[in-house]
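stage 2 :: seqdesign
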């Protein structure tokens, strides 16, 4: 028996077949209904070394429990669940613990008809969300919530500046920050994306190519959330107030930068790294999102058979929000 899956191996990225997974002790088989595409999935094929075997990509997913292994106590057949892609990180901490990794490499991921996973990596899917939204809020929501709240220490009344307005994480950060009482400013090269960000709740949306010093001269930026990388990093730091905090959770452009250390310590700014988060934070995020009725923004829904089209959209950064596969 086999399942349909999006696979990366020696033949490249393709739609193919993989053996049907079976639950071992402490594991659950989930029949997936939807799976969310993340930028990480785009990078894995280029960065995998010593492939040697086929890998099912994908970190986010939602579905129905189909089978449970020995000693599983938290789940029953028929439960509707979402995947927690942050493996082996359960309690909130300053950094990730030993053994932490993201689902989808080296473990088989969610771009398949079924997945087998530890019972500890599942949560009930939020009842107010659709299946597509349930597969879009895990990785992006957890990443954005930790960057903004845990690591960014955002307070009500803060002004938050977020370069790059189109990613799934940023569309959730905009909503989280507004719900928590912040003023939110974003950037984008695309006029359409700037308009979409404003409709989502951003207070201002400026052109990435504009003079940020001029555009922001009347603003006091308390917190910057950076994920673009070298293309914007130093401008982001210049925009930040003295004593402000800059949180970095990604680098979609080049990740090696030149940094003026004298400027940094003279202005007494903080630069903080952030990546994914714990199960504690995932649950906090889900409670917060439901309380404020926050929904992931979905740009495109594609059948798994057309998943490679979704990869191309992400590569072009043409989407606003998430790309989701129906399985």
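stage 2 :: out
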């Amino acid at each position: 028996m086999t399942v349909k899956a999006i696979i990366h191996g020696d033949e490249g990225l393709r739609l193919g077949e993989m053996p049907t997974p079976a639950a071992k002790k402490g594991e659950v088989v989930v029949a997936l209904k939807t799976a969310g595409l993340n930028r990480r999935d785009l990078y894995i094929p280029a960065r995998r070394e010593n492939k040697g075997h086929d890998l099912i990509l994908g970190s986010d997913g939602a579905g129905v429990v189909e089978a449970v292994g020995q000693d599983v106590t938290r789940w029953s057949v028929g439960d509707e669940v979402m995947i927690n892609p942050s493996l082996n990180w359960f309690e909130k901490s300053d950094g990730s613990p030993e053994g932490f990794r993201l689902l989808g490499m080296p473990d088989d991921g969610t771009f398949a008809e079924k997945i087998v996973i530890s019972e500890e990596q599942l949560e009930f899917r939020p009842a107010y969300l659709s299946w597509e939204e349930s597969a879009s809020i895990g990785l992006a929501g957890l990443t954005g919530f930790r960057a903004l709240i845990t690591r960014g220490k955002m307070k009500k009344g803060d002004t938050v500046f977020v370069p790059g307005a189109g990613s799934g994480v940023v569309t959730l950060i905009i909503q989280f920050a507004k719900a928590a009482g912040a003023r939110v400013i974003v950037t984008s090269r695309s006029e359409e994306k700037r308009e979409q960000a404003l409709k989502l709740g951003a207070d201002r949306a400026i052109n990435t190519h504009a003079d940020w010093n001029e555009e922001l001269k009347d603003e006091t930026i308390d917190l910057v959330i950076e994920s673009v990388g070298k293309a914007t990093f130093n401008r982001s730091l210049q925009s930040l107030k003295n004593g402000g905090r800059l949180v970095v959770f990604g680098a979609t452009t080049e990740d090696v930068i030149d940094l003026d250390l004298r400027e940094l310590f003279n202005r007494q700014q903080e630069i903080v790294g952030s990546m994914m988060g714990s199960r504690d934070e995932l649950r906090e995020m889900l409670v917060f999102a439901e309380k404020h009725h926050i929904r992931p923004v979905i740009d495109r829904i594609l059948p798994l058979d057309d998943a490679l089209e979704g990869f191309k959209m992400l590569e072009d950064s043409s989407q606003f929000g998430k790309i989701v596969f129906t399985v």
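stage 3 :: structure notes
- The domain at 2-139+296-326 is CATH 3.90.180.10 (Quinone Oxidoreductase; Chain A, domain 1).
- The mean pLDDT is 95.
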